[in-house]
Write a structure and sequence with these properties.
The protein has 3 helices and 2 strands. By secondary structure, the protein is mostly helical. The protein has one domain. It has a two-stranded antiparallel sheet. The longest helix is centred in the middle third of the chain and has 25 residues. The chain starts with a helix and ends in a 20-residue tail after the last helix. The mean pLDDT is about 90.
């Protein structure tokens, strides 16, 4: 895995994790009962995006380390995921 593919892998993991972390402990204006005129009741009262971004970065780094290790050591290869035997069994190189 090259540097560019490692960065792309981290970015994909980071954004997927961020989309999972955003709704955790979210308090909406409707929950509090203080709805600002012109906004939806489901709008967040306090979003804490900076804290969630740091949490996402930590989780993503751990996941990236695990996935990068699996890729670099060859524990799981693309041939292992070829369930229908469409790639053939050529020599790895």
């Amino acid at each position: 895995m090259g540097i560019t593919s490692g960065i792309v892998l981290f970015a994909v993991i980071w954004f997927m994790t961020f989309l999972c972390v955003i709704p955790i402990r979210l308090t909406t204006q409707g929950d509090i009962g203080d709805i600002v005129p012109g906004t939806h009741a489901g709008s967040p009262e306090e979003h804490n995006l900076k804290k969630k971004a740091w949490i996402t970065t930590g989780i993503s780094f751990v996941l990236w380390c695990i996935i990068a290790t699996i890729i670099l050591t060859g524990t799981i290869t693309v041939q292992d995921l070829d369930w229908f035997h469409r790639m053939g069994r050529g020599t790895a190189g």
